[in-house]
Amino acid sequence: MTKGEIHRMTTAGTSTSGRTRTVTPKHDVVIRFAGDSGDGMQLTGAQFTAEAAIAGNDIATFPDYPAEIRAPAGTIHGVSGYQLNFSDHEVFTAGDEPSVLVVMNPAALKANIKDLAQNGILIVDTDSFTEQNLKKVKYEANPLEDGSLDKYQLFKIDITKLTTAALNDMGLSTKEATRCKNFFCLGLVSWLFHRPTEITIQHIEKKFKNKPGLAEANRRAFMAGYNYADTTELFAESYEVKSAPITAGTYRNITGNAATALGFVAAAQRAGRPLFLGSYPITPASDVLHELSKYKALDVVTYQAEDEIAGIGSAIGAAFGGAIGITTTSGPGLDLKAEALGLAAKVELPLVVADIQRAGPSTGLPTKTEQSDLLLAMFGRHGESPLPVIAAASPADCFMCAYTAVRIAVKYMTPVILLTDGYIANGSEPWKLPEVDQLPDITVKFATDAATYKPYSRDEKTLARPWAIPGTPGLEHRLGGLEGQNGSGNISSDPDNHELMTKLRAEKVQRIAQEIPPMRVMGPKSGDAIVVGWGSTFGPIHAAVKQLQKEGRSVAHSHISYINPLPSDLGDLLKNYKKVIIPEMNMGQLRMLIRANFLVDAIGINKMKGKPFTISELVTKISAIMDGRKLEAVQ
Amino acid sequence: MTTEATAAVKLTRKDFVTDQDVRWCPGCGDYAILSQVQRVLPELGVPREKIVFISGIGCSSRFPYYINTYGFHTIHGRAPTLASGLKISRPDLCVWIATGDGDGLSIGGNHLIHILRRNLNVQILLFNNRIYGLTKGQYSPTSEEGKITKSTPYGSPDHPFNPIGIALGAGATFVARSIDVENQHMPGVLLRAAQHKGASFVEVFQNCNIFNDGAFDYTTDKENKLDRQLRLENGKPMVFGKNNDKGIRMNSQMQAEVIEFKDGLSEKDCLIHDETNPAIAYMLSQMVAPKFPTPMGVFFAIQKTTYEEVATEQINTAKKTRPLTIEQLLKSGDVWTVK
Question: A521-634: which CATH architecture?
Answer without folding.
Answer: 3-Layer(aba) Sandwich (3.40)
